[in-house]
């Protein structure tokens, strides 16, 4: 739980530093993207701190391209 609290403190500091200039300049689209990416990164960090298994994107890419790779390999032999 200490790790999660530390992550949330760091997120609060990031928000305190980055959000005021965006609000002063009235950059609403950039603010939305900032919050979405920050939320995604925070969720992944908390999941990793709690030892929750996070799927590896490389496994998905391998599963998609493995049949194609096998077919090309058979054609070249």
Strand percent estimate: under 5%
Structural class: mainly alpha
Quaternary status of these chains?
single chain
Give the biggest beta sheet: none
Instruction: Determine Rg (CA atoms, Å).
Output: 20 Å
Low-confidence regions: none
Mean pLDDT equals: 94
**Counted beta strands:** 0
Q: Label the overall shape.
A: elongated
How would you characterize the overall build of this protein?
It is a single chain. The chain has helices spanning 2-24, 28-49, 57-76. The chain is elongated and about 60 Å long. By secondary structure, the protein is mostly helical. The chain has one domain. Helix 1 packs antiparallel against helix 2. The protein is built from 3 helices and no strands. The longest helix has 23 residues, at 2-24.
């Amino acid at each position: 739980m200490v790790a999660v609290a530390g992550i949330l403190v760091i997120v609060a500091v990031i928000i305190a530093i980055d959000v005021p200039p965006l609000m002063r300049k009235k950059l609403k689209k950039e603010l939305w993207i900032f919050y979405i990416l920050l939320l995604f990164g925070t969720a992944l960090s908390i999941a990793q701190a709690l030892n929750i298994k996070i799927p590896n994107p490389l496994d998905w890419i391998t599963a998609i391209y493995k049949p194609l790779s096998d077919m090309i390999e058979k054609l070249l032999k």
